[in-house]
User: Fold this.
Amino acid sequence: MALSKLDNLYRQVILDHSSHPHHHGQLQDGETVDLNNPTCGDVMRLSLKLDGNTITDIAFDGSGCSISTASASMMTDAVIGKTAGEAFELADIFSEMVQGKTDDRQERLGDGALLSGVAKFPQRIKCATLAWNALKKALENTNGSSEVANLSGHCEI
Assistant:
């Protein structure tokens, strides 16, 4: 497949996640975090439910650009059913990837790996990482596991 056709396929997947986001909405109960990106005005509310240390449900709502929305949709798909520790690890892999540090671990991100091209546009990195930072913050707030406490990182935008 020619590179331009592959790029177009990647763009289509990103646009599909942006236009028809997965796990979009709000959860009635669970941990909820609000974050925003003052640089571009993206606003996100992320809610998640844990059963023990496992993410059993997750949803996001808010307003944002196509990269922010697509990234949130892809993130929810990647982390549902994962432990808090696994979710933190995926968030770190994603953060490294959009900063240009790629390796074979990014395949674990599912469709999220398609956002590796964001590294070429530094001004969009905060858009892409907003949902992942909200996830880390929500997991930190649960205080439900030593695994979360040991893996928590910075959630600054």
